[in-house]
Specification:
10 strands; single chain; elongated; alpha/beta; 5-stranded mixed beta sheet; Heat Shock Protein 90
C-alpha cells in the first residue's frame, strides 16, 4: 500500500483554478502531483520528462488535440494509465474514450472519496498489468532460450559421442579385425590395448553423465552434490568457496534438491564468468518451515535494473531460469547486488522432505 501512496500523478486540465484544486486533492490523498498541463502538447512533454505513474486527464482541452487523443498518444508512447475527468457523459464521448483503454472515468463534480477510490483501483490495476506483461515477456524469453539451450546441449552431446566414444569404438573394431590376421603371440597385446580403450570410453561416459546430472545428487543428497560442485567451480575458476549446511536433517524432496543444485550451479557459473570474485560462500539453512539457500560473492557486482532489462530481452536467461526453478517449487528467488559490492542470490522455498513427496 505504501508504494501506491507514493505514486506520482500528472494532471492535465485547461482550467487553472480547477487544476490547482485537483492537485491539492491529490496531495491530500497522499500522492505526489508532479505537474499540471493545460493542453495535449504540454501533457506529452511532461509525461516524457516526469514519467508519472498515472495521468488525470480532462476530456475537453484547449487546442486542436483533445484529452482522448492525448490519452491515446500517452498509452502508445509511455504505456501510462489514464483516468478521465469530464463533465460530459455523452455516449459518443464514452465510445471514443473506451478506445484508449482508460483506467477510470470520473464525472465532474466528484467527491474526494470517488477520486480516492478511482486512483487506488487504477494504480493497482496498472501494477497488476505491468507484472503480468513482464511475466509474459520473461516466459517468452525463457521458452525461446530453453529451446536454444536444448539444441546446443544435444549438439554438444552428439559431438562428444561421435568424436570420443566413436573413436574408441572404431579403435576396438580395428584391433578385433587385426587380431584375426595376426598370429596368437600378438593377441595379448591387442587385448590389453582394447581394455585400455574400453576404460577410457567408460570414463568418457561417466563424465558425460555427470555433466548432465551428477549421480551423487540422487545417491548422497543435496549437501554432497553442492560440496562437489563448489569444489569443481573453485578448481576451475580460482576463487575460494566455503559451504555451510545444516547436518542431520532428512533428505529434501527431489524437486527441491534439484532446484537448489541447479541454482547454485548457475550462480557459480555467473560468478566465474563475470564477478571477478575471490571468495564465494554457499549456505543451506532451515528457517521455520522453509529452506534458505544463499550464494554470496565478493566480486564486482552489477546493476540490478540493467540485469532485469537484459533478462526480459532474453540476454540473461540464466537469471530467468533460476527464478523459474524457484517458482516451480513454490519458492521465491531474490537477487541483491550493486556495482563494487558483490552480489547475493537467495532462494526461500517450503521445507518439504523426501518422505512428504512420496
Amino acid at each position: 500500500m505504501q508504494a501506491i501512496k507514493r505514486a506520482r500523478i500528472l494532471i492535465v486540465e485547461d482550467e487553472a483554478i480547477v487544476a490547482r484544486d485537483i492537485a491539492m486533492q491529490v496531495q491530500a490523498l497522499g500522492y505526489e502531483a508532479v505537474g499540471i498541463a493545460a493542453n495535449a502538447e504540454q501533457a506529452l512533454l511532461l509525461a516524457a520528462q516526469e514519467r508519472p505513474n498515472l495521468v488525470l486527464m480532462d476530456v475537453q482541452l484547449s487546442g486542436v488535440v483533445d484529452g482522448i487523443a492525448a490519452a491515446a498518444a500517452m498509452r502508445a508512447q509511455f504505456s501510462l494509465p489514464v483516468v478521465f475527468l469530464t463533465a460530459f457523459a455523452a455516449d459518443e464521448v464514452l465510445e471514443r474514450a473506451k478506445l484508449t483503454e482508460p483506467f477510470g472515468y470520473i464525472l465532474k463534480p466528484f467527491t474526494e472519496r470517488e477520486l480516492s477510490t478511482t486512483l487506488a483501483m487504477a494504480l493497482y490495476k496498472h501494477e497488476a498489468e505491468t507484472r503480468l506483461r513482464n511475466t509474459t515477456r520473461q516466459l517468452k524469453a525463457l521458452s525461446r532460450r530453453v529451446l536454444e539451450v536444448q539444441e546446443l546441449e544435444r549438439r554438444r552431446v552428439a559431438v562428444e559421442l561421435h568424436d570420443e566414444l566413436g573413436q574408441s569404438l572404431t579403435a576396438i573394431k580395428i584391433n578385433l579385425q587385426l587380431s584375426q590376421r595376426l598370429k596368437d603371440k600378438a593377441l595379448a597385446d591387442i587385448n590389453l590395448e582394447n581394455i585400455h580403450i574400453v576404460e577410457d570410453a567408460l570414463r568418457q561416459v561417466r563424465r558425460l553423465a555427470t555433466n548432465l546430472r551428477p549421480s551423487m545428487l540422487d545417491d548422497l543428497g543435496l549437501a554432497a552434490a553442492l560440496q562437489w560442485v563448489a569444489e569443481q567451480s573453485a578448481n576451475r575458476s580460482g576463487f575460494l568457496v566455503t559451504f555451510h549446511h545444516i547436518r542431520g536433517q532428512s533428505r529434501l524432496a527431489p524437486e527441491i534438491e534439484t532446484a537448489c543444485f541447479r541454482i547454485v550451479q548457475e550462480a557459480l557459473t555467473n560468478i566465474a564468468r563475470h564477478a571477478q570474485a575471490k571468495q564465494v560462500e554457499i549456505r543451506l539453512d532451515r528457517q521455520d518451515d522453509h529452506v534458505i539457500l544463499r550464494i554470496t560473492d565478493d566480486g564486482c557486482g552489477f546493476n540490478l535494473d540493467e540485469m532485469r532489462t537484459r533478462a526480459l530481452a532474453g540476454d540473461s536467461i540464466g537469471v530467468l531460469g533460476m527464478q523459474e526453478r524457484g517458482t516451480l517449487v513454490g519458492g521465491e528467488l531474490t537477487i541483491e547486488s550493486e556495482p563494487g559490492h558483490g552480489s547475493t542470490v537467495q532462494l526461500r522455498a517450503p521445507w518439504r522432505t523426501f518422505e512428504e513427496s512420496l
